[in-house]
Amino acid sequence: MAKISTAELERRLERARTNREEEPAFFHCLLDAWVYAHALVSDDHARLRLLQFRHPDGFHAVPFFTSLEKAQPPAGITANIIPLLGRQFLELTRGATVMLNPNDGG
User: Fold this and answer.
1) Where does 49-105 have alpha helices with state H?
2) Is the dihedral of CA 102, 80, 58, 9 positive or negative?
3) Is 65 helix (H, G, I), strand (E, B) or coil?
């Protein structure tokens, strides 16, 4: 079970955005917090496959979110919202470009 609340994770994220010295504390917090990702709705593949999007700068990114509310898919996108511990999410996406809360500026 996650040890870090959504409120604590988001508080640490905001502190890290304004002060680079806060980044290690945020990443440590992220590992033990619930995060949310988008998965295909109808996918019979044996492995979990997460949705990704093409960023306007041309690269592909796997979005993930600090809260269930922020993870609601945009209009026209159908996706399952999958809760994962931050550590699990980062292990599953190793080598991929990930973007936290892309609707908030990433």
Assistant:
1) 86-92
2) positive
3) strand
Domain span at residue 83 reads 6-104
Is the distance from CB of 66 to CB of 35 less than 8 angstroms?
yes
- pTM value? 0.88
For residue 93, give both structure tokens. Answer: 């996406």
Q: Are 100 and 67 in contact (CB under 8 A)?
A: no
Is residue 27 within 8 Å of 38, Cβ to Cβ? no
Domains of the chain: total: 1
Residue 81, strand partner residues: 38
CB-CB contact of 4 with 51 (8 Å): no
Domain annotation covers residue 59: yes
Pair of tokens at residue 50: 């997460």
Q: Which helix (H) or strand (E) holds 85?
A: strand 80-85
Average confidence (pLDDT) per 10 residues, the chain, 106 residues? 85 95 96 94 79 89 95 84 96 94 80
